[in-house]
Amino acid sequence: MKPTLALKNSHVAITFALTLAATASSHAVAQPSVPAPRVGAAQVTAVPASMPTPTVRVAQAGPSSPSAPMNIPPVSASDKADLIAATVRELNNRYVFPDVAKRVGEAINAKFKAKAYDAFTDGEALAKALADDLFALTKDSHLRFQFDPIAVPMQTLPGQVVPEAQAAAAQLDAQQRNFGFERVERLPGNIGYIDVRMFYSPSSAGDTIAAAMNFVANTDALIIDLRQSLGGFSDTVALITSYLLNERTLLSTFYSREDESMEQSWSLEWLPGKRFGGTKPVYVLTSKGSVSAAEELAYNLKHLKRATVVGETTTGAANPGAFVKLTPLFTLFITNARSINAITKTNWEGVGVEPDVKVAAPDALRRAQLLALEKFIATERDPRRVNGLRARVAQLERSAP
After folding, report:
1. Terminal CA-to-CA distance of the chain, rounded, Å?
2. What distance in Å separates the CA atoms of residue 27 and residue 144, rounded to the nearest whole number?
3. Which residues of the chain does CATH 3.90.226.10 include?
4. Is the pLDDT score of 16 beyond 70?
């Protein structure tokens, strides 16, 4: 079958849901799980490559029970057998690299038969052990297990009920995080600064993004801080990038193994508000913890030669995927697609985004400001402004770590 091509700005259609389980892998960022029926075949829901797990409290029956512990039974031998079988099956069916899936499945099966997982009766511990094994075998930071105690049959959770309005709760959580925009300000020297912690969907975050970009539109340089960003939607990457370009530009193509489709991501021709434009300096701050969609923004802008990346080499999680419900208790995020940059024809999977200016993450903001100010001084003709810029440079240099 030949790949088909879809000309869309959308990467994946996504439904948010909340989970009670934190991520089980020490190598990956926490993700929200997706509720699915407790019987039948594995259920799949597309999700952003990297989103944080919101804090959720389970509603209790009765005013005196909010602190009652959840009564989660141990994972049985048959549960583990079902989990391993489902893991191997779904990896072989969906993982973006079939040869890798075959090798990983054989290795996991061999460990199971060697009783390597027999000692694990706690769901979260088992999920972490399996996630660690997957990472060791693939170096894929997106592959991760979640143990979902919310899916335990409710008769084992006496006195507890699950909130019905999960989508509303997820939206409220996003609002309380200001849709990922932690801070927007104008720094001395007329430098715009945006601290992005999350790339929520444009349908949710669009107004916030437009407001942030309008605020910095008249600054002379822009710093986008991704040092603490946990990723999110590729559509949002395209939206933010669009404010930094003057014309429609192909950013990436996404190959999906499941239907062999090819979906293109372009910058947008129309935007709400004012563009920052395609000529003023842009600096992107990164850390070793910058992951997924945050890396996509840094990688795209770097190779478009639209931004200078300042900081540390990023995590190296490029390829998107989906949550698959393996058993009533366990969910696995499986990388089922591949990101292909329009310029490099590859991506940052396993290697991360290399900064143009390497500096420890805590010092990246100071360093980016210095780069911008030095560029201003080189072209500024007003002596008074030059003096003010030099004073700011001296102040930043004195604050060097």
Report:
1. 57
2. 8
3. 178-316+337-398
4. no
57, pLDDT greater than 50:
no
What does 333-374 look like in DSSP terms, one character per residue? EEE-EEEEETTTSS--TTT-PPPSEE--GGGHHHHHHHHHHH
Distances (CA, A) of 279 to 219, 220, 246, 286: 12, 10, 8, 21
**Assigned token pair, 136:** 């060791």
H or E element: which one contains 311? strand 308-311
pLDDT (0 to 100) of residue 71: 64
Coil/strand/helix, residue 40: coil
Instruction: Report the pLDDT averaged over residues 341-370.
Output: 97
Where do we find the tokens 């999920």? 127
Once rounded to an integer, what is the mean pLDDT over residues 234-258?
Answer: 96
Question: What is the model's pLDDT at position 150?
Answer: 59
What is the helix (H) or strand (E) element at residue 331, kind and residue range? strand 330-335
Closest CA to 232 of 199, 197, 201: 199
pLDDT higher than threshold 70 for residue 32: no
Do β-strands 250-256 and 337-341 pair in parallel, antiparallel, or remain unpaired?
A: antiparallel
CB neighbourhood size of 114 (10 A) = 9
What's the Cα-to-Cα distance from 93 to each of 41, 113, 134, 324, rounded to whole Å?
13, 22, 16, 11
The predicted pLDDT at position 180 comes to 96
Is the model's pTM score more than 0.90? no
| Amino acid found at 171 | Q
CA neighbor of 59 nearest in space, from 207, 161, 140? 161
Separation CA 288–CA 93 (nearest Å): 31
Instruction: Order the strands of the 308-311 sheet from edge to edge.
Output: 181-187, 191-196, 221-225, 282-286, 308-311, 357-358
Check: CB of residue 373 under 8 Å from CB of residue 393: yes
Written as one letter, the residue type at 381 is: R
- Alpha-carbon distance 145 to 128, whole Å? 7
Residue, of 154 and 212, whose pLDDT is higher: 212
Domain 178-316+337-398 sits in CATH 3.90.226.10: yes
